[in-house]
Amino acid sequence: MLLSVQGLRKSFNGRNVLEGVDFSVAAGELVAFLGANGSGKSTTLRCVMGITSPDSGSIRIDGAALDSLQGRELQQTRQRMAMIFQKIHLVPRRTALDNVCAGALSRIPTVRSLTPLLFPADVQQEALDCLDRVGLADRAFDRVGRLSGGQQQRVAVARALCQRADVVLADEPVSALDPHAAEQVMALLRELAHSEGLAVAAVLHQPDLALRYADRSIGLLQGSMTFDLPSTEITAEHLDTLYAPDRNPSVDRTQAA
Amino acid sequence: MTPHTLTPAVVRRGSSAQTRVALIRPKKPLRWITTAAVAAAVVGLHAVAIEGTDFKPELLVDGWKGMAAFIGDAFPPDLSWEKTLKPGLEATLVTLWIGLLGTTLSVPFALLLAALAAENTSPHRLVYQAARAVLSFFRAVPDIVFALIFVTAVGLGPFAGVLALICHNTGVMGKLWAESMEEIDAGPQEALRTAGANRIQQVANATLPMVVPQFVGLLLYRFDVNVRSSLVLGLVGAGGIGLLINQSIKSFQFDSMLTHILIVLVLIIVVDQFSAWIRRRLAA
User: Fold this and answer.
1) What are phi and psi for residue A81, nearest 5 degrees?
2) Parallel, antiparallel, or unpaired: how do β-strands A224-230 and A216-221 relate?
3) pLDDT digits over A174-219, tens only?
4) Which domains are seen in chain B, by residue range?
5) Engineering a disulfide at B150: which of B1, B38, B163, B222 sits with its beta carbon 3.0 to 4.6 angstroms away?
6) Cβ under 8 Å to B: A residues 222-241
């Protein structure tokens, strides 16, 4: 397993957000996280990414536990993971190519990264190749702010590729996109997993997208996993437990507690 | 759930066939008292301020003759080319150059201090506090005081004015820039951090390019202000049209003074229009 996570726990101000989450993502696999708002999907990804530090739990990349690594080795292992954000988080005034180059900053000396004019030629070529892989090589010199939302998210994917990440964590990558663009981005993520062997974990708000694009879906309810199944085996009952918990008497009791 | 302290505003009345939500505003008895207290405090402060500034409108009424004589002397403005217009225009250009250099030469200092004094780009809490303190100092000392200090160092003339504006403008622009960096969307910077970029790389490739429009807008605004400030600096000997206005008042040539003021008016309008034009183009 390229990414494996065990016993992930996190609480904010005494409120348990994650109560022991275990999952893994293999190379070449797209895994979807489903759950209502506040179920801990995004916190899971942010803990794995290291944006939020978990209270406990182990995270392994390609077998190497992150908490056993230090310094440069830890940094290099962490960089095998890249994050895609709901709000895309590109710099709108810069070109698509310059934004993609920024994914490679950790490989560029600081003095050569002060302005895009100084970015090394090989990095720029690699960034262009990454844009080509997401189908946007022809827009390389357009300002990102002039691209559509779907195109911007694909540029963000190209930035993750330029980081040379083999684990991609996508936090609601299509929530801000129109349905057509959402399909395009999901198809791109699936293709990157299947044909380039990336391990992709995506938090999704639309179960139908998960069922159609993800190889496996994981359901989260109040910080605990309720299912981890191939998407073909997910039924309407599974989804009901996530999004309509008040219809489920066993959950009612935990809410009252 | 925290208990609500207010009485619930929604009460249903009437038969089951026709119910309506009754409008009952929650009562807040303290609101009247606080409003009255604030009003009383504001009125009281103004009374003290009127006392403290010898604010006596009747003096203005009694002194109308002096003002009328002053304005009468100023009209018509002196439009002689050699004596007033030519030196006035030349000095106005000097004023413009003082404002320009005072703004642009403070950019590197303001940029560095702003990056150190913004919470999201500062490398350390102590550096942040120190940079804030430096900016506060340069902002607190008025440019006219800097001008007086530099006049003693480099002598009377526009150079002292440029140095004074560089110092004061560094303080003001550094603060404004730091604030606009703090207000910027932190997302792109966070994205680069997760990609393994170091602090300098994050600032150079996310934070700074994000704030360029705000920075340029503030820079133009400061240019506008600095051109006007350099007029006042002329009054204390730092060159430019302010110096000429001061001289014409001291030698009772109020008609020349009026000409100079009219030239200044044109300069201010031109600078204002210019910066408005640039800002419009930036916004587009």
Assistant:
1) -105, 135
2) antiparallel
3) 998 999 999 999 999 999 999 999 999 999 999 999 999 999 999 9
4) 70-283 (1.10.3720.10)
5) B163
6) none
Asked if residue A174 lies in contact with residue A209, where contact means CB atoms within 8 angstroms, the answer is yes
Instruction: Tell me the residues of B at the A interface, defined by beta carbons under 8 Å apart.
Output: 185, 187-188, 190-192, 194-198, 200-201, 204-206, 209-210, 212-213
Distance CA B33, CA B81 (A): 66
First-residue to last-residue Cα distance in chain A: 37
Q: Which of these three, A108, A141, A165, is where a domain ends?
A: A165
Residue A154, CA atoms < 13 Å, CB-side half-sphere: 28
A85 vs B191, B200, B205: nearest CB: B191
Supply the ipTM of this predicted assembly.
0.88
Of A74, A76, A89, which to mutate for an interface test with B (greatest number of B Cβ within 10 Å)? A89
Query: Which candidate in A47, A84, A91, A167 is best for mutational testing of the B interface (most B CBs within 10 A)?
Result: A91
Cross-chain residue pair B201–A79, CB shorter than 8 Å: no
- Residue B5's pLDDT band, with cuts at 50, 70 and 90, is very low
Helix extents (H) in A81-206: 96-101, 121-133, 149-162, 179-196
Q: Does A28 touch chain B (CB under 8 A)?
A: no
Q: Is A103 on the interface with B (CB under 8 A)?
A: yes
Cβ contact (<8 Å) for A108 and B210? no
- Burial label, A186 (beta-carbon count in 10 A; 0-12, 13-18, 19+): buried
| Chain A neighbors of B210, CB-CB under 8 A | 91-93
Instruction: Residue A74: give its domain's CATH number.
Output: 3.40.50.300
How does pLDDT run across A183-195, given as a tens digit for each residue?
A: 999 999 999 999 9
pLDDT of B56-87, one tens digit each?
888 888 888 888 888 888 788 777 787 878 88
C-alpha–C-alpha distance, residues A29 and A31, integer Å:
6
